[in-house]
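Long-time lurker. I teach an intro course on protein structure, and each term I like to show students one example going from raw sequence to a predicted 3D structure in token notation. This year I'd like something fresh instead of my usual example. Would anyone be willing to generate the tokens for the chain below so I can use it in lecture? Attribution to the forum is fine with me.
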Amino acid sequence: MKMASKFRYQERDPGDVKKRAEQSGGSFDSYLKDTVSFVKVADGENNFRILPPTWDLKSDWGNNWCIDTWVHRNVGPDNGVYLCPAKMGALFDVDIDCPICQAVSEMDSEDDEKAIKDLKVKQERLAYIIDRSAQKEGPKVWRLGWQLEKALQLRSQDKKTGAVVPIDDPDNGYDISFRREGKMLNTRYLNEDVDRDPSPLHENQKTQDKWMDFVIENPLTDMLIIHDFDYLDKIYRGKKGSKQDRDEDRDDKPTRTTRNRDR
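-- Reply from a regular --
Happy to contribute to a lecture. Here you go:
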């Protein structure tokens, strides 16, 4: 007769399994905390639901459903992506010069044209979304350019009255859709659209509450990491070792995150 086991098996969350399956051994630093991850925008059709802002709407971050960030790409041997401390320091209550901006300013505009283009600070928008094709993974961070945001903002206004269409309302909002084509620098976003009829974030209230609780407890503005001058300078000059070495260095000298605010 088989005896009852004291062990109780607990199923793993699909999102956690997917995150482990897609990890890379030589992963570079991220400017997001491990609590959240970027959504992978699929080739072809995409259908998202944008989540509302849950940070202090009276703060410098504004009251839009997305936040503006300034980043440097292609940094160091791992081609990492980092927030620009010079551009974003004020939002973190810090005053830090940016070694990458300094390096770009010292480059020759003709001889170093490609390096300048690769490293020059760029603006990106971030938003919390639910990918309708992978809802079990819960809230993800979506990185989008200004052209796509502009297209969605235009479609978020009533053409006759100018009234705002609340696409990010969790109870009576609107799904958005678009098509992604091309690769890398040739990537294009087409057919941006907003649903005609409002709908709840999820048909199951418990699931909707779970998603909203997550973004309330983890406002997007608090998920960002900004590094100090010395750390970024070493990364840029290739003087940092493996990611494990960089993690140990951060344990010794914590990086900055956004200041706590009353919400």
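Some talking points for your students: Residues 205-217 form the longest helix (13 residues). The radius of gyration is 21 Å.
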